Amino acid sequence: MDVPKLLEAVSLLVPAEIATENDITINDVWDYLAHDEWEVALGLLEELGDVHLLPLDFWESLATAAEQMRLERSAAWCHWRCYESRNGIIRADLTLRPTGESRRQAPFSGAGVLRPMWNIGNRTPTGEDDLNIARLWAEFTPVLGPGERASVRLAPLDPSQWRHLQPGQTITMHEDRTIGGTAVVREVHGPTAKPAA
Fold first, then answer.
1. pTM above 0.85, yes or no
2. What is the rounded distance in angstroms from the CA atom of residue 62 to the CA atom of residue 120?
3. Residues 108 and 59: beta-carbon distance below 8 Å
4. Distance (Å, rounded) from C-alpha 112 to C-alpha 44?
5. Which of 34, 71, 88, 117 could form a disulfide with 174 if both were Cys (CB 3.0 to 4.6 A apart)?
6. Phi, psi (degrees; rounded to nearest 5) at 132
7. Domain ranges of the chain
8. CATH class of the structural domain 88-189
9. SS (H, E, C) the chain
10. CA distance 47 to 21
C-alpha cells in the first residue's frame, strides 16, 4: 500500500472528538493529506496517538508509513508504541548520576537504543537484588547525558517481571552493578492489544 493510502487508513482509526493540547484534530490531518504533506500528517497522527490510546493497527500502519518515507525516528517511535500496545506502558522521571558517580561518561541516544538493567524490587531465590532489563526511550529528548533528567518510557525484556510497579515507586538504573540513575514511576498501564488467537 502506498503512503497516502496508509495514512488515510490510519486516520480513520482516530476518533473525531479527540484533540491535542494545541487543538489539533483529525481534520487537520485530512487537510495536510489533501495537500500531499505526508510527513506533517504523520507527525500529527503521532501526536493524536499520544493523546488517546489507539489500537495496535494504528501504530503498525503508521510504522509502515514512516518506514516507507524513510523517517527512521518516527518509525522507531511507532514500533515502540506497538510494543506498548502489546505489553503495557511504563513511564517514569529519570535522573542520571553525574560524571564520576557512575559508569556513564557520555550522552546516549534517547530513541530506545540503550538497554540498561533496573532494580525494580525483585529478588533472587537467595534474597539478592535481581536486576531486570528494559530498553529506555527518553521523551522529548534526542540524547541524554550524565547528570541530566528526562521523562522516560521503559520497554521490559520480560514484562511479567514488572507487573507489580506502582506510580510513585522509586527504581534504579544500572549499566553495571553501580547505580547509574534513579527513576520515579509516573504511570503504569497494562496492554491494550488483544493477544493473537
1. yes
2. 32
3. no
4. 21
5. 117
6. -120, 140
7. 3-86, 88-189
8. mainly beta
9. CCHHHHHHHHHCCCCCCCCCCCCCCHHHHHHHHHCCCHHHHHHHHHHHHHHCCCCHHHHHHHHHHHHHCCCHHHHHHHHHHHHHHHHCEEEEEEEECCCCCCCCCCCEECECCCCCEEECCCECCCCCECCEEEEEEECCCCEECCCCEEEEEEEECCHHHHCCCCCCCEEEEECCCCEEEEEEEEEEECCCCCCCC
10. 10
Query: Residue with C-alpha cell 517481571?
Result: 161
